[in-house]
Inverse folding.
């Protein structure tokens, strides 16, 4: 297990329930969140940065302030949500470092940092924890690969800054790979990606649901004691609740949910989204908290 420093341990406490399980509302999406706002008069693509910032602020007010932690981006949401007093004092802030999209080199995907954002920026924005996304294909990438070097470098930089880093991994289908081939290898790709990240020093993981209780147990074994949270990947809420219960029973340490909570609770109208976030998304958050804590 990659041991937490004292500062990182405090960060881990901040993103966890009283029972010690991770529970984070993910709202760092930019284009994905716009696409969920279906009633914008000129279409979701015409939503301005200021309008999206208001949506994110309401998502924090009516939903995330009831969770241990919220994941936000430094391009639209921050620092306004902190400076304007929207974020509750008891809700920890996770700052996403990854920019939207990815580049592809020789069939492999690579994410990029938001311009100018570093572990020090996380502190400057009022953050408690950082998150970075990497795309991984551990069948083609090892500890000498570019992605491994990037993980090691950021883990070290965050530790030096006293900022806990959540390493998010997404595996994906390669060009020319059939649906059947990818489906057959998916569970092992998730587990092997976890093993690769842990070998590079990762201390907390955010991973795709690998498909079954047996596959979750394999991920837990690959993580070698490093806590991992399952991400929602846009599935419906009921499906995610079942995935979380299965993952937790097989050694997962929590959940990070975005679209499964709020994808049908956003609106260009402040009144409408306040109602939907409170009456629909918040109910789901409470159900997710119960699943994470085994209640």
């Amino acid at each position: 297990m990659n041991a937490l420093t004292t500062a990182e341990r405090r960060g881990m406490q901040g993103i966890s329930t009283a029972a010690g399980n991770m529970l984070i509302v993910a709202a760092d999406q930019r284009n994905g969140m716009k696409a969920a706002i279906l009633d914008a008069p000129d279409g979701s693509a015409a939503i301005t940065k200021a309008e999206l910032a208001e949506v994110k602020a309401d998502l924090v007010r009516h939903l995330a302030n009831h969770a241990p932690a919220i994941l936000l981006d430094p391009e639209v949401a921050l620092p306004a949500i902190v400076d304007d007093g929207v974020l509750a004092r008891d809700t920890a802030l996770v700052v996403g470092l990854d920019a939207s999209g990815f580049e592809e080199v020789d069939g492999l995907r690579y994410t990029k940092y938001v311009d100018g954002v570093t572990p020090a920026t996380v502190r400057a924005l009022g953050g408690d924890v950082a998150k970075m996304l990497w795309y991984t294909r551990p069948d083609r990438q090892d500890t000498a690969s570019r992605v491994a070097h990037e993980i090691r470098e950021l883990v070290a930089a965050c530790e030096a800054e006293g900022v806990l880093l959540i390493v998010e991994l997404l595996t994906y289908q390669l060009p020319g790979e059939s649906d059947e081939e990818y489906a057959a290898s998916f569970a092992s790709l998730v587990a092997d990606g976890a093993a690769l990240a842990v070998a590079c020093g990762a201390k907390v993981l955010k991973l795709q649901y690998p498909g079954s209780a047996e596959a979750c147990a394999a991920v837990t074994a690959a993580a070698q004691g490093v806590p991992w949270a399952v991400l929602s990947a846009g599935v419906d809420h009921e499906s995610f609740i079942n995935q979380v219960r299965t993952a937790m029973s097989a050694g997962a340490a929590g959940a990070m949910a975005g679209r499964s909570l709020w994808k049908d609770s956003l609106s260009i109208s402040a009144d409408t989204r306040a109602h939907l976030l409170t009456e629909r998304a918040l109910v789901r958050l409470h159900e997710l908290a119960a699943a994470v804590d085994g209640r």
User: Anything to note?
Assistant: The mean pLDDT is 96.
